[in-house]
Design goal:
With 408 residues, the protein is α/β, with parallel strands linked by helices. The chain folds into two domains: 216 residues, Glycogen Phosphorylase B (Rossmann fold), CATH 3.40.50.2000; 178 residues, Rossmann fold. Helices cover 42% and strands 17% of the residues. The chain contains 15 helices and 14 strands. The strands form two sheets. The protein has an eight-stranded mixed beta sheet with strand order 3-4-2-1-5-6-7-8, with helices on both faces. α2 packs parallel to α3 and α11 packs across α14.
Length: 408
């Protein structure tokens, strides 16, 4: 089977969509299938092309046996709605054009969160008369409204109509959460063509390991209780809640015992850094994005990982992919996301759940885990036991079976 996969994020970018696509495609190649990925020059999230790449009309490379075609796009930083839409739309056009020249695909997959990529996949499938698969990573554009980036308007209504059109025209929808599946069924989408393949963790990379003492000294966190947020610093993540927790901890009697690490980049990173400087938070450490192969060294530094999204109804349907990386690394979790993902934390007993944007509960959770090393260790052991339930290779095989089913 030849799988043609359209995505505007792919390694060496290190965000969740890039990792999922790469790890799935790598497993499909290992299973004996041909995989072609159409993507753009790596530039997320700063909007600067990575070293060794150029923003050309078309360039090819091979990554772990995957044929990767990179097409030209209008590149901008992950900030500012209008420019990002231009970025998305340019990829829609050039990815469609590039896909016309891919040799005999059997199935065409487009992945969200933004669905202009999926528009290109649908158009290619229609022209080439192949099955069209919509990989649903986010209910977009609803998530735009959820973070306040755009209010209800004619433009939003038009995007919502396109969204439903794509759902209806797809041969198969692969949803990353059961909650998304339920939302689509409530909108009248045929339940029989929606399959759930959750995010997971690459067990060959993310596994429990000791702290790197030299790195801890370099960062000034040696001997401290280290909590960390690793991932995109965007509007959706509500990271001011973490800064406020740091401020309260610093003011407490045992405040110097704690350090909160922010690793990653995004639209809110510069503002958060400036706010921490204004508040003179000496217990906060900001780290820019690091190469994918080094991320595990930073995960291993954490005594506890903080996962957080803003308090909105929509985000109750989201499962942050970093949850599975925490589980794989054996890092206990303070989970500030409601809904399906919180149910996983409780069911697997891998950490504590707190209400999104509730600083009091976050601080209480940090103080509780710092004061109870036995409980912390039990959560870490539970992570190790639970990791096998979210093995990426198993999940990739499940999605492959669904692709094979619709391709025949």
């Amino acid at each position: 089977m030849h799988i043609l996969f359209l995505t505007d994020n792919f390694p060496p970018e290190v965000n969740a969509p890039a990792s999922r696509t790469h790890e799935h495609c790598r497993e499909w190649v290992a299973a004996g299938h041909e995989v072609t990925v159409i993507t753009c020059a790596p530039n997320f999230p700063k909007g600067r092309v990575f070293d060794g790449y150029r923003n050309r009309w078309r360039q090819k490379e091979s990554v772990d046996g995957i044929d990767v075609i990179r097409v030209w796009t209008y590149i901008t930083a992950n900030a500012g709605f209008a420019r990002r839409v231009l970025d998305y739309m340019s990829f829609m056009v050039t990815a469609f054009a590039g896909g016309l020249f891919v040799r005999r695909p059997d199935v065409i997959v487009g992945t969200s969160p933004q669905f202009f990529t999926v528009c290109a996949a649908w158009a290619l499938a229609a022209v080439r008369r192949k099955p069209f698969v919509f990989e649903l990573r986010d209910v977009w554009p609803e998530s735009i409204k959820a973070v306040g980036a755009m209010r209800q308007s004619l433009a939003i209504r038009m995007l919502e109509k396109i969204e439903v059109f794509l759902y209806r025209r797809s041969t198969l929808i692969v949803s990353v959460t059961h909650s998304f599946r339920r939302i689509l069924v409530e909108r009248g989408i045929d339940t029989g063509k929606i399959e759930v393949v959750t995010n997971g963790v690459d067990m060959t990379r993310f596994s429990r390991r000791p702290k790197n003492a030299e790195l801890a000294r370099k960062l000034g966190i040696e001997g401290k209780f280290v909590a960390g947020y690793i991932g995109t610093h965007g509007m959706a993540h509500g990271l001011d809640t973490l800064l406020e927790a740091a401020r309260r901890l610093a003011a407490g009697r045992e405040g110097d015992r704690f350090r909160i690490v922010f690793l990653g980049d995004g639209a809110e990173k510069a503002r958060l850094r400036a706010e921490a400087e204004r508040l003179q938070l000496n217990n906060v450490v900001f780290i820019d994005t690091v190469p994918k192969n080094l991320v595990v060294e930073y995960w291993a530094l954490l005594d506890v990982s903080i996962i957080h999204l803003r308090k909105t109804e929509l985000f109750g349907s989201v499962i942050p992919s970093k949850l599975f990386e925490c589980i794989g690394m054996g890092v206990p979790i303070l989970h500030g996301v409601a809904g399906e993902s919180a149910d996983i934390v409780r069911r697997e007993q891998v950490g504590l759940v707190f209400e999104p944007e509730n600083t009091d509960q976050l601080v209480a959770g940090l103080e509780r885990l710092e004061a109870n090393p036995a409980e912390l260790a039990q959560f870490a052991d539970n992570c190790t036991k639970a990791a096998k339930n979210y093995d990426r290779s198993v999940l990739a095989a499940r999605m492959l079976a669904e692709l094979a089913r619709v391709a025949t």
